[in-house]
Amino acid sequence: MNADRLSLKLQALGDPTRRAMLARLRQGEATVNELAAPFTMSLPAISKHIKVLETAGLITRSRAAQQRPCQLSPDGLREVDDWMRAYRDIWEDRLNRLETYLQTIKE
Amino acid sequence: MNADRLSLKLQALGDPTRRAMLARLRQGEATVNELAAPFTMSLPAISKHIKVLETAGLITRSRAAQQRPCQLSPDGLREVDDWMRAYRDIWEDRLNRLETYLQTIKE
DNA sequence: AGGATAATTAACTTATTAGTTAAGTACAAA
DNA sequence: TTTGTACTTAACTAATAAGTTAATTATCCT
Q1: Is B87 in contact with A14 (Cβ distance < 8 A)?
Q2: CATH 1.10.10.10 corresponds to the domain A1-73
């Protein structure tokens, strides 16, 4: 509904097919057919997933003859990572507190 | 569809209302009414959002009188963070390569 | 016991998402 | 210029998600 950029990204990442595509792209750029290969679903379905990733800014596309190769957007996950930072700090804080506590009862 | 745990988490995080709830919980536990306060939507809608967060393992709940306070699940985002690590490495690799390149042309 | 407060469940509506097949576009190659 | 390859768009269906109001459950307080 409120399609802010961060929500778009997280929603895009919430689908295992799309995450598998990103994983494939970690090894380098790939055409639509290459991305489609591991899946049983139709090519239009693949095409839509790719569009979701592109709209979310997670991948970019180029053009080579009749192919439309996809590549990871280098800073595509940066926004997600930034958002997570605050929570990562919390885990670390809790871990630190736990360590301190364990140290205390040990003494 | 394939509701694996990581997808559940990312889908849950893809909603700004739910992220706002998590942000509130960073300041400490909160009751349903407290979580609902900033929003105009109905309490049942809030209740559903909370259930999504709970099912995803992002929050836990306790019981205090007739309240059902929510708290952040300490390692709730750990799985997401682990998933992101591989991609974070890619950014860093690219940044490193860029730095190396800049260094090269500078010399 | 009876009423107030906190929250959930039920039943429903509407919008969005994920998939399908069939048709269309863009380019390459013969 | 026709044929094939690579993909996208259109039109549709079915499932899921996000919200609503009304009813229900659980606990506290008098």
Answers
A1: no
A2: yes
